[in-house]
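Whiteboard transcription, Tuesday session. T.W. wrote the C-alpha cells on the left side:
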C-alpha cells in the first residue's frame, strides 16, 4: 500500500521567544515492512542544528528557535510504501540491549492494578496467546476517551481510572508485559484510518518480544496487530523516548500548539 502523509505542527507564542530547543522524531525509516519513497521537512521560525540517530535508532533532528520568533512551524510530508507483516518485526537490532526494554520507567511503573492485570493472563503458556489475551483485557478495561489523560499520565493511573487514548493503551500493555517477563517497547507513527483523512494527532502502539517471532506489534486501541496501514516512525521505552516533538523554552508567556495531520492512500 502506498501512503501519503502530511503532518504540520505549529507553536504560537504570546511573547517573543528568547531561547527554545525542540527535538523532532518525525522521519520514518525504511525497514520492517515499509519503504520511504520520499520525505521532506520544512521548518520556519527555527533552525536545524543537528540531525542524528539516537540510542533507539530513531532519526532525530534538533532545532533552535530563531531569537524573537513568535511562531514555529514544522511541516513533514512524504510517501511510504508498506506491506502487511501481521505485526511481526522480527529480530532485535540497534544499540539498545534487549534487557533495557524490561526496565520500568516513570510512566510504566507498575502498581496494584497493573499487577492484577498481569495475573489475569499469567496462566497462558504460549507468549503470543498471552499477549493477545492481554491486549483484549486492556481494551475492555481502559475505554478510549480523548481529553482525559495527557503525555505524563502513568499506565497505573490510566488502568485505575479506566480511560485513556492510544498512548495509555500502549503504556498499560508495556507495563504488564514487562511484569510477565517480556521486553516491550513503545512505538509512535502513523495510521491510515478508515474513512478519515484529517486527524488530530499521530498514533501509538507497542511491540513485545517473543522467543519465536522476535518483536511483534499490538495496537490495543484498534484490537489488531499492525498491518499495511501503519507507518513506524520512532521507538523507545515509553512515550518520552519516541515523542514526535519534545522541547524546552526559557522566558515568560504562554504557548499554543496546533497539529494538522493527513494520512491517505
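and on the right, the sequence the group agreed on:
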Amino acid at each position: 500500500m502506498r501512503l501519503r502523509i502530511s503532518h504540520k505542527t505549529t507553536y504560537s507564542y504570546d511573547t517573543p521567544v528568547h531561547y527554545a530547543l525542540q527535538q523532532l522524531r518525525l522521519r520514518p525509516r525504511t525497514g520492517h515492512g515499509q519503504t520511504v519513497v520520499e520525505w521532506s521537512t520544512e521548518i520556519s521560525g527555527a533552525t536545524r542544528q543537528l540531525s542524528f540517530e539516537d540510542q533507539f535508532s530513531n532519526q532525530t533532528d534538533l532545532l533552535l528557535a530563531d531569537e524573537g520568533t513568535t511562531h514555529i512551524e514544522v511541516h513533514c510530508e512524504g510517501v511510504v510504501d508498506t506491506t502487511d507483516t501481521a505485526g511481526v518485526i522480527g529480530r532485535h537490532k540497534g544499540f539498545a540491549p534487549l534487557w533495557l526494554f524490561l526496565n520500568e520507567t516513570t510512566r510504566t511503573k507498575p502498581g496494584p492494578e497493573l499487577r492484577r492485570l498481569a495475573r489475569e493472563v499469567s496462566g497462558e503458556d504460549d507468549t503470543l496467546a498471552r499477549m493477545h489475551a492481554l491486549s483484549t483485557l486492556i481494551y475492555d478495561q481502559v475505554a478510549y476517551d480523548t481529553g482525559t489523560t495527557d503525555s505524563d499520565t502513568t499506565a497505573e493511573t490510566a488502568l485505575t481510572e479506566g480511560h485513556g487514548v492510544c498512548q495509555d493503551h500502549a503504556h498499560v500493555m508495556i507495563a504488564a508485559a514487562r511484569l510477565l517477563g517480556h521486553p516491550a517497547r513503545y512505538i509512535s507513527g502513523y495510521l491510515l484510518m478508515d474513512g478519515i483523512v484529517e486527524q488530530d494527532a499521530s498514533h501509538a502502539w507497542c511491540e513485545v518480544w517473543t522467543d519465536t517471532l522476535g518483536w511483534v506489534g499490538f495496537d490495543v486501541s484498534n484490537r489488531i496487530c499492525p498491518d499495511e496501514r501503519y507507518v513506524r516512525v520512532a521507538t523507545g521505552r515509553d512515550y518520552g523516548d519516541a515523542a514526535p516533538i519534545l522541547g524546552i523554552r526559557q522566558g515568560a508567556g504562554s504557548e499554543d500548539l496546533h497539529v494538522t495531520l493527513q494520512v491517505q492512500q
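Someone added at the bottom: The chain has a mean pLDDT of 95.
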